[in-house]
Amino acid sequence: MTATSSARAVGLRPRAGRARVSIPFAIAQTLAFVVVMALAVVTWWPIYQSIEVVVLVGVGLVLGALIALAGTFLRLAGFWILVATVVAFGLFGVPVAVPSQTTYGVVPTLAGLRELASGAALGWKQLLTITLPVGGYQALLVPLFVLVLPGTVIGLSTALRSRRAELALVPPVVVYLAGIVFGPETGLRPIVTGLALLAASVLWLAWWRLRRRRLAIEEVTLATQGREAVRTGVHRSGSRAFARRAIAGTIVTVLVAAAFSAAATTVLHPAGARLVARSVVAHPFDPRDYDSPLSGFRSYEQSPAVSSTQLRVSGLDSGDFVRIATLDTYDGVQFSVGSGAASSDSGTFTRVPTSFDQSQVNGSQANVAVTVDGYSGVWLPTVGQLETIDFSGSDAATLRDDFFYNDRTGTAAVLGGVSSGVSYRLSGVVPTEPTSAELAAVTPGTDSVPTPVSVPTALKNAVSTYTDGVTGQGARLQAVLAELKKNGYVSHGTGDGQAVSRSGHGSDRLSQLFTDSLMVGDAEQYSAAAALMADQLGFPARVVMGFSATASARTSGSTYDFTGSDITAEIEVDTAQYGWVRLDPNPTPRPIPDQTVTNPDQVTRPQSVVQPPPEVNDPRNNQTPPQSKQDPAIVTPAWLVALLLVGRIAAWVLLVAGLIMAPFLTIVAVKARRRRARKRVREPARRMTAGWEEFHDSVVDHGIPAPPNATRSEVAAVVGGSRPVVLARVVDRAVFAPETTDPADADRVWKAVGEMRAGLDSDLTRWQRFKAAVSLRSLRGYHGRKASQR
To answer: What is the span of the domain harbouring residue 755?
Structure first.
């Protein structure tokens, strides 16, 4: 087939010595590629789930198609196509990928351009550390635009301008796989979407190849039988054959793939959710960097916090609980939020760009407004299982960006903390609590919490005593809580006539709670003890700290002004019947007896001659126990952080570049080793022959069509010029002459070979020289080796 017929066979028409794409062919290729790319983008829908992503994909496909078509019909070089892509990315990137940073909805602002640039570099990491779906949150649409726009330009340009149009499928496959990697652990009908993409790709490839074959047949028929035969016979039969083959091949391929997928998913059904990048990525907010909120419980009971308004909340029902934090990890010193165990999700906090789906939670809807007054801290008070949150005020955008949430424990946090003046509205679902009768019949649930350590022996003994003779796990749990309320007395130990009550909830303090003659403490000790006792009974348990909507805190209607005296701590236990259930283990405040109640069964110990020093109350302004394990954070200098970041980025760039360039460097190294071995041949005549072989290999690698098994003179004639002809004659004389070859002549031949190899590169572009350097033609034995021996 001639070069003209080959060009026509792939939809090109010769014009002025160059191949040109026909308009019908370009339209067909564009439509086929757009369909394939649109199917590939489906894997990104679970990440965004918003109309913004539909607009972005549509704009990206249209812009990419226009740039690729313009580059094809105007015959633009790759550099100008790159410039056009970058300009389109800058002009349209902000309106479609950062719509919040535009003027009149279309004009990008400087802040929008900055977010566009940072999103292209950092948006990939942010996608992995945020809760899905993200909608149009901040600049998180930018990564998809980075894939769709350049992917469309590259893929469609390859389909229209390359002889290997099949490579146009690489960008859609990359987009499809990236959606899986950055997506959720549960995909959107992965088998259906995968088969749809496979079917469209196979159909497009079948159309391309069969059309190329049909046009080649038409060219042959045109050359042998005339244009009329092509128009009346071959064209119709070829079109019908193409349609039958394309449809049949696609159906068979899809059916085989579907059958294989069904069999594979049946036999190799995954045990759980699929492993994606967000499954292993480290999230930026670590609750273990902060002190346990329960350790600061007594600070709310001190003046002036005890009588000062901490929160003002409207929209609450009586008995609702405003959660500050959920603490599920006990290390013998304190209860904390989350643990270092890799299997624990309790310490995993993620950003919440849009909302949480709480449709599986059985409860009542809550819509509340919160205004922070005296309260401050990193933990953000919430109600129920959070669905949406909306900050107000001048710093709303900053608070939104710094907001993190753990849906497993219902705990929210804001980096940098919140303080007086912060206002926000939130909606959530308050779970339905079982009645006392229903609670008696519950059994432990299957959820897990980190295993507590250093549980006091006195506490374990108390569990055995309290549950003696009680049957049923739910009834035993009720018995334990009832005994705590019956035997316990409430004192915050803050003076003002209150009984001595040491703060803290470490194992020694809880042991004291059960060994003293009177059980005296407050919600800090009773909640910690109740959670550990529930764990002893087999119930996953955790402590919840917050404010309870009681009558004393109500100001009017559903509005509550919570002061420090309204702070409390309760427990949650996981049940098989109702999920996590909140229980109050705290005794009702009552007078504490002045005299120690003596147990007649106990043996009275003689009084020590030397009296111990009298116990004193905790100083009023120093109630937080010295039990926290938190060490002061070591602040790394900013210049060192920047230097490490630059080094890390440079290392990754070098690693990726090395992986990409490794095959090419290997080819260059193999050729260099071959050339060195040829130059080291000892016999002068054979070294001259090796020099010709080196020149012959360079000719082949540069794409000059040297006939197989050609003589040296024939190869020199194909190359052209006088020097190849002279070199061929010199080598032939050295091979066939009877006299011995002078070693100096061999050195001169190799010097000429080096100059002639450089001459082959003199008129080439850098890209053409690179292609010649990494060409495999000479390594594959493209030309006959015996030719050099003639």
So the answer is: 642-789
